[in-house]
Design goal:
The chain is α+β, with helices and mostly antiparallel strands. Helix content is 38%, strand content 9%. It binds cobalamin and iron/sulfur cluster (2 copies).
């Protein structure tokens, strides 16, 4: 049955698959998660502090009663360097996972198909339940992926699949089916510290631990309103998200890129626009523009604020007039960023 599940995951186009026993203890990971919260490293992401106990086990009413296995999958989004080099400047200021359409819908559709297949492995006498999860439940996805032997956790905190790198998204199907678990892979970073050295905001207090409050991904995606003044310059040319600790990683340099144009290729909308053009748009126009893209998570005001940081860093004189207008914006974050950027010009 394990072989059939793995084969089905492959047939659906997932790049890697691993299985963990739902009984595997996450005590060590849970303690790390608790320490992360205690240190306030989650910043304003209040949802991370909710359902604390649910993150310890998937077997229960919060995820799935009687869960026996966690099928973990990886979906890659890394494209070839040549292809990325042709991305518009606007697309290049967006983290790679977010240049195309929102991955959640696409991943969810495929995970639902995998869950439906898993259910067919049950019988009338022994029915099987299966629940697909695509970044939408309170579980420690990376801890499960590591338990499943999908990959190992690198010093940048990301799951790295040898041969495929870390530029991948993770999803799960939790099931009552008892499958054969995989073996965890030993960490392979060795003495390398490239990701830690590459981080523009020194967001890693120590290897494997990320202070999310300092992470550009948090600042440009999750954080609403003002950004603390000592971090504004470090946001630099990141309009949405950050890949710096992955771009620096040798496991990504040696990974073979995706060969196809698909949902991870930049949306056509990014082609005709420059970041400076975003400053001329109303929030309603930005909402329309980012509609089915991951950028909607940042909110239109957040996108405007981040665009101010980018043009300020680039000292783009074309932005001068728009920045003056935005320095009276209703959103405090936009006001602050526009004034900062105008100063830079
Ligand atoms: C909140 C969140 C964020 C926050 C906080 C990130 C963080 N490190 O906590 C912010 C907004 C900053 C963020 C950024 C990014 N994220 Co995010 N994020 C999440 C989310 C929703 C929850 C993470 C969480 O619970 N954090 C709390 C910490 C304590 O838990 P953890 O991150 O799992 O940490 C584990 C390790 O640090 C490890 N650990 C800690 N100490 C030690 C020590 C040793 C020795 C070892 C081995 C391990 C270890 O134990 C922890 C528990 O397992 C997950 C999805 C999910 N439900 O898990 C996606 C997720 C982690 N994000 C993802 C992605 C793609 C990103 C970005 C690359 C996006 C981007 N390009 O901008 C960046 C990468 C930043 C980074 N270096 O981690 C992917 C990661 C895929 C992968 N290959 O690992 C996930 C899994 C989403 C998904 N379904 O694919 N993210
Ligand atoms: S995503 Fe960027 S800011 Fe966040 S830890 Fe990695 S390099 Fe640092
Ligand atoms: S850059 Fe080096 S230390 Fe960081 S995750 Fe990659 S191999 Fe590990």
């Amino acid at each position: 049955m394990t072989e059939r599940v793995v084969a089905k995951a492959r047939e659906l186009g997932f790049d890697a698959v691993g299985i963990a026993s739902a009984d595997a203890s996450l005590d060590v990971d849970h303690a790390r998660y608790e320490a992360f919260l205690e240190a306030g490293m989650h910043g304003t992401m209040g949802y991370l502090a909710e359902n604390r106990e649910a993150r310890r086990s998937v077997n229960g009413p919060h995820i799935l009663m009687g869960a026996k296995s966690v099928i973990c999958i990886a979906q890659r989004y890394q494209r070839s360097r040549d292809e990325e080099a042709q991305d518009s400047p606007l697309a290049q200021s967006i983290a790679r996972y977010a240049r195309g359409s929102d991955y959640h819908n696409f991943l969810r559709r495929k995970l639902r198909k995998l869950a439906a297949f898993v259910r067919t492995l049950g019988t009338e006498a022994a029915p099987v339940s299966a629940r697909p999860l695509a970044d939408d439940a309170p579980i420690l996805e990376r801890a499960w992926a590591a338990r499943a032997g999908l990959g190992f956790v690198g010093k940048n905190g990301l799951i790295i699949v040898p041969g495929l790198g870390s530029m991948l998204l993770i999803g799960e199907v939790v099931t009552t089916l008892d499958l054969l678990p995989g073996t965890p892979i030993a960490e392979r970073c060795g003495s390398c510290t490239r990701c830690l050295d590459a981080c523009p905001t020194n967001a890693f207090p120590k290897p494997f631990v990320l202070d999310a409050q300092k992470c550009i991904s948090y600042l440009t995606i999750e954080k609403r309103g003002e950004v603390s003044s000592n971090l504004m310059a470090a946001v630099g040319e990141h309009l949405f998200g950050c890949d710096d600790c992955q771009t620096a990683c040798p496991f990504n340099a040696s990974a073979r890129p995706r060969a196809v144009k698909d949902q991870f290729s930049p949306r056509s909308e990014w082609g005709g626009l420059d970041v400076v053009d975003l400053l001329q748009l109303t929030e309603a126009q930005i909402a329309d523009l980012v509609g089915s893209s991951p950028l909607k998570r940042a909110t239109p005001a957040g996108v405007l604020r981040n665009a101010c940081f980018v043009v300020g860093t680039r000292k783009d004189a074309r932005a001068r007039e728009a920045l003056v207008a935005l320095s009276c914006h209703v959103d405090a974050g936009v006001r602050q960023a526009a004034r900062w950027a105008a100063d830079k010009l």
